[in-house]
């Protein structure tokens, strides 16, 4: 796989990777994460598609400017990114966790620029969320919990997987690298507090977003890892009710990142959804 590069998106340097030719696909990571969460996905999809993956503004190794961090702001940044990358065709957005909520927000803001959606353990379908994210909403406590340490990074990585073998030293080291990025705390806490509070994920933005998106009836695939400890798999049932037109799939023995733990099965499912060979 090619190495990520920096792209100027208006006044922000965004870290991204572009690979393959064909219809465009955009991969969006979760809160506090980076494009490395799609390492197993990119080669499989790039065989038949133009695949864009990026570190969202405020996350990964992209710039972290002092701007408001909201769901609409992140979706707007994705639009500016695509403009900077020269991609004007309707895209398929594949979003994991926060990235799934960003994908849905992008679709309601710019429906003419979206072909379809793949939502992977996506935020937006329920109130329940891991205690670790709820604690970040508490003033001062959230700031204290953001202090980078190898132990905290290891704990985060362990929480993402059902099978501990995927919580490799390399992934823990990368999580520590991300945790130590200057300016990381403000965007992380801003987004976490926009999305939810001590009681869980706020209902206001969820209901407004899913209501608007349901009316568009975009081709949609919603998948979940059955053993997700961040956003429980019961949210998949909510997604089925909200988007009755969507295809759904539950990955057994997988956590919050089924695109890694069930890479072969995930890639085959997405390729078939996209209309290519599985």
Strand and helix map with partners:
Layout: E1 5-9, E2 12-19, E3 23-28, H1 42-46, E4 49-54, H2 71-85, E5 91-96, H3 98-109, E6 114-120, H4 131-135, H5 141-145, H6 150-160, H7 169-179, H8 185-195, E7 196-197, E8 200-201, H9 203-216, E9 220-225, H10 235-242, E10 247-251, H11 258-261, H12 263-274
Parallel strand pairs: 3-4, 3-5, 5-6, 6-9, 9-10
Antiparallel strand pairs: 1-2, 2-4, 7-8
Domain AB hydrolase-1: 24-262
Protein name: Alpha/beta fold hydrolase
GO molecular function, one term: hydrolase activity
Count of the domains: 1
Rg (CA only): 17 Å
Average per-residue pLDDT, rounded, comes to 96
Portion in helices: 40-55%
Describe this structure in words.
This protein has 278 residues and is an alpha/beta fold. The chain has a single domain (5-130, 203-274), classed as Rossmann fold (3-Layer(aba) Sandwich), CATH 3.40.50.1820. 41% of the residues lie in helices and 19% in strands. The chain has 12 helices and 10 strands. An 8-stranded mixed β-sheet has the order 1-2-4-3-5-6-9-10, with helices on both faces. A hairpin with a 2-residue loop joins strand 7 (196-197) and strand 8 (200-201). Helix 2 crosses helix 3, helix 3 crosses helix 9 and helix 6 (150-160) crosses helix 7 (169-179).
Short description:
The chain is of the alpha/beta class.
Give the tags.
single chain; 278 residues; alpha/beta; Rossmann fold; two-stranded antiparallel sheet; 12 helices; 10 strands; globular; AB_hydrolase_fold; hydrolase activity
